[in-house]
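STRUCTURE:
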């Protein structure tokens, strides 16, 4: 077994939750926590939803939100807890810690979670107490277990939905949360469930993806799910494989349990680099993997029926009519997913003020959020709220599609800064580049390293952080150093019927050269595109060498760097 597996054998990871109360009560430092519990405690704390920040003494803590659905009360508590507890100390800048957001901010993630930074261990019990009052949890927000279950953020609202899968999402989430039998898997286990025909929940890049289907059984038609397994990104990206199964909604929990059992028994616990479930599916083959699931399932799984997925949407920004007469949901654009806790609380209060009793706040996989059940006559008042000015439901195309990971501000793995850069670039690109009027969003995703937390492989434009050494010794940054932040530059990714991972067209591009390179690309795109052709489609139709040549026409050293250390 690898070292992480040994840590989990030494103590069941869920036992760490009780330990947190002791650490908090005694106000232990990081050194004291490690002295008491050993180095493996940092791994086990992930089961409490806690990651040690690179700033010693502080945690990032992750709140699970199944399907992204929050009541206004829950959303307000999240915002208020952020404002009260996610506060940077004076030695790290205090209220001026970040020039764009200050402190006391939260991050909406691509898995419909909420992340908060600067949390001290002594404050965690207070957070948990306040969460318990409204039915929220951080348990298994991280760690080698079932993570937050994804869903369409507009579940129950849109006409293109075949059926509302939120009750199934809640049932699957409830089954796995605090379930000791399935809380120690070989690696993280990512599930997505949707009844939406547009696959907003990204079934193609999850370990398990349940998508809407229909099947005739004994002369009657029933709605249920088809299954995709073994999808994922990071190193070794893979699109999920379709299984020949039809899953009735009441059997979805058992199906997911059987998949988890298969992974638990057969997954690799030796090589941490290849222990994700997608490697197991690839090694066994989808047919053998399906057999293994059937062998472990306590219900008979029918053969597949009629697939009802028609494409991929993933974008809910703007004002949209609900299928309920006279009601609307409004999608607000949060560039890179970061906003103040006070602003999120204000959005929650606005949902309660302007919405019906069914109003909710929904988190989307593109790091944006929705407010639902707004009567026609209240839409303008909602849009006049102060938070709505900053997080406009009518952004430019680059802002609308911008996604950014945590970056090296807090993450130990990230090579470059991402959040501030993503926000600044998106707004600058909206000002500098004229995108064709029929293109609503340009998906630009920035990951600080190769771990793919920002999902760059499925974007129109994807970035992966590097440190870059400029080959021209006369080329330096503002500090006179020829080692600069940069990134691998990818083009042409998407999900849906024409799903394809992007090509990494150019490597080690200095960060300052990216916007000039994009200006050249979009000038060529606007001139050459066929009517209605999307940017990722155009990129796929142009040879990578030609794309590089276009980028290199920029008045910037696009191709004059190498990855530092190569």
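SEQUENCE:
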């Amino acid at each position: 077994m690898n070292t992480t597996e040994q840590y989990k054998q030494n103590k069941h990871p869920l036992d760490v939750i009780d330990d947190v109360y002791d650490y908090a009560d005694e106000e232990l430092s990081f050194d004291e926590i490690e002295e008491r519990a050993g180095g493996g405690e940092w791994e086990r704390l992930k089961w409490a939803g806690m990651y040690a920040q690179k700033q010693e003494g502080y945690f990032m803590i992750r709140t699970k939100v199944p399907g992204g659905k929050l009541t206004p009360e829950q959303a307000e508590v999240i915002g208020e807890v952020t404002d009260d507890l996610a506060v940077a100390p004076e030695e790290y800048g205090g209220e001026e810690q970040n020039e764009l957001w200050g402190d006391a901010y939260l991050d909406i993630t691509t898995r419909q979670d909420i992340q908060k930074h600067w949390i001290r261990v002594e404050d965690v019990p207070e957070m948990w107490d306040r969460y318990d009052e409204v039915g929220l949890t951080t348990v298994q927000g991280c760690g080698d277990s079932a993570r937050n279950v994804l869903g369409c953020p507009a579940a129950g609202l849109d006409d293109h939905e075949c059926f509302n899968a939120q009750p199934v999402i809640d049932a699957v989430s409830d089954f796995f949360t605090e379930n000791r039998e399935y809380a120690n898997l070989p690696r993280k286990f990512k599930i997505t469930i949707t009844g939406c025909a547009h696959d907003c929940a990204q079934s193609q890049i999850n370990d398990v993806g349940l998508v809407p289907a229909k099947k005739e059984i004994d002369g009657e038609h029933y709605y249920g799910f088809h299954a995709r397994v073994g999808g994922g990104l990071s190193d070794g990206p893979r699109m999920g494989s379709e299984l020949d199964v039809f899953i009735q909604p009441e059997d979805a929990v058992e199906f997911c349990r059987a998949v988890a059992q298969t992974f638990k028994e057969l997954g690799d616990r030796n090589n941490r680099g290849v222990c994700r479930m997608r490697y197991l599916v690839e090694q066994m083959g989808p047919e053998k993997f399906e057999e293994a699931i059937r062998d472990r399932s306590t219900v008979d799984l029918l053969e597949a029926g009629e697939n009802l997925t028609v494409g991929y949407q993933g974008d809910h920004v703007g004002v949209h009519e609900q299928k309920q007469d006279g009601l609307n949901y409004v999608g607000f654009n949060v560039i890179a997913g970061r906003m103040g806790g006070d602003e999120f609380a204000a959005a929650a209060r606005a949902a309660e003020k302007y919405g019906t009793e069914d109003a909710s706040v929904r988190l989307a996989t593109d790091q944006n959020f929705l407010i639902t059940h707004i009567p026609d006559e209240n839409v303008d008042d909602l849009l006049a709220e102060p938070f709505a000015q900053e997080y406009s439901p009518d952004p430019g195309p680059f802002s609308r599609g911008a996604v950014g990971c945590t970056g090296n501000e807090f993450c130990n793995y990230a090579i470059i800064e991402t959040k501030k850069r993503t926000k600044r670039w998106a707004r600058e690109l909206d000002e500098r580049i004229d995108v064709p009027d029929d293109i609503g969003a340009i998906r630009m995703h920035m990951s600080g390293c190769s771990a793919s937390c920002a999902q760059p492989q499925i974007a129109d434009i994807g970035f992966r952080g590097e440190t870059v050494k400029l080959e021209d010794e006369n080329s330096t940054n503002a500090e006179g150093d020829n080692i600069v932040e940069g990134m691998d530059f990818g083009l042409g990714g998407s999900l849906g019927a024409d799903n394809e991972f992007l090509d990494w067209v150019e490597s080690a591009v200095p960060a300052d050269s990216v916007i000039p390179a994009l200006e050249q690309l979009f000038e060529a795109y606007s001139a050459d595109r066929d009517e209605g052709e999307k940017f990722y489609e155009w990129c796929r139709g142009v040879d990578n060498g030609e794309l590089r040549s276009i980028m290199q026409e920029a008045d910037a050293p696009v191709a004059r760097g190498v990855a530092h250390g190569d």
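REMARK: The first strand starts at residue 50 and ends at 52.
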